[in-house]
Specification:
2 helices; about 80 residues; alpha+beta; four-stranded antiparallel sheet; 4 strands
């Protein structure tokens, strides 16, 4: 697992990259609160959610870019 964060605390995390058998999972702290207009987020946890990337085309998709932008905005709101 690789975590992208601006500090050492869980709350300072923007996202994680998790290799799995189904594909690459992008995990999001407070993913339950992220806007997800493309309905990519999966998981049943109380806090986190993830999106599974199954193809190279999906990596550069507008939907994934939007999730990452939303996660960065949420991070900025948490730490301000």
């Amino acid at each position: 697992m690789i975590a992208y964060c601006y500090g050492q605390k869980y709350v300072e995390m923007v996202c994680t990259i998790i290799p799995s058998k189904k594909g690459i999972k992008l995990g999001f702290y407070k993913g339950v609160d992220l806007p997800d207009p493309y309905h990519l987020l999966e998981g049943k946890g109380k806090v986190s959610r993830y999106a599974v990337i199954r193809s190279e085309e999906q990596i550069n998709s507008q939907a994934i870019k939007q999730l990452l932008e939303n996660a960065l905005s949420a991070y900025k709101q948490r730490v301000s």
